Amino acid sequence: MRYMVDPVPGRVIIITEVPGPYTNSLCFDGTSLWTGDYQNYVTYKLKIWDDEQFKTDNESRSRVTYTYTVDNYGPGTVKEMDIYLAIPVDRVNQTIVDKISYSPEYTSIVTDQWGKQSARYHLCNLKPRESQSLQPTPAK
């Protein structure tokens, strides 16, 4: 793999595959990008532009349990509170394969100005030294 990095913030801009096992050089001749493999003694012309924006590989499946806990350390009762947990959706780097269950069930679903949805929990009367845990998990 070759990485193009913006040196100021240190962000990776592009990750590209290289054709050989031991590529150690890059050269741009004004038109094409080339790399050399020192084990195979081969020079490769690299693709520098295509319509592929994302590539996924090394697919894996994970079951994620997320727990959000509210603790009231006192001294008084928390009369009301709203908590918002983002509802996961499919993205270029993830696919939600199971329905998400919520325990306890959320109060409502709210949508922000960009169309992103969150589960809204409205909690009342959390007494001192009490906790409330919220847990969205994939359905079994």
Report on the architecture of this protein.
The structure is a single chain. This protein is an all-beta fold and 140 residues long. It has two domains: 2-46, no CATH class; 68-138, no CATH class. Helices cover 0% and strands 47% of the residues. The chain is built from no helices and eleven strands. The chain has strands at 2-6, 11-16, 23-28, 33-37, 42-46, 68-71, 78-86, 100-103, 108-111, 117-126, 131-138. The strands form four sheets. A three-stranded antiparallel β-sheet has the order 3-4-5, with no helix packed on it. A three-stranded antiparallel β-sheet has the order 6-11-8, with no helix packed on it. Strands 7-10-9 form a three-stranded antiparallel β-sheet, with no helix packed on it. A hairpin with a 4-residue loop joins strand 4 (33-37) and strand 5 (42-46). The radius of gyration is 25 Å and the shape is elongated. The two termini are 37 Å apart. The model has no long low-confidence stretch (mean pLDDT 87).
How many E-type strands? 11
The main sheet comes to: 3 strands, antiparallel
Assembly context of the chains: single chain
Query: What integer value in Å does the Rg equal?
Result: 25 Å
- Shape descriptor reads elongated
User: What is the helix tally?
Assistant: 0
Straight-line N-to-C gap: 37 Å
Low-confidence stretches: none
Number of spatially distinct domains: 2
Q: Report the structural category.
A: mainly beta
